[in-house]
Model the fold of this input.
Amino acid sequence: MVKTIDVIENLLKMGKPLTALRFLKQFIKDNSGLMRNDEECETVKRVIMSFPSLNDESWRYFVPSPPKEEIEYLIQKVKECIPLSV
Done:
């Protein structure tokens, strides 16, 4: 269980975008009850939950990862949608 979004941001900084997305997905699952219930947050949730749960070390050669900026944007949106992560 990922308790803070900082762990996810650090994974992204370390060059592990797929692992960061996997942890972000788990963070949303763990805190879905705290997520704002509006259209924007529901869309962010759907987008993140649609990503496969892949490990960077195993899949980096087979699966293109989204650009770092896009993952940073998703992380920021999750921070806005889940007050706990602020």
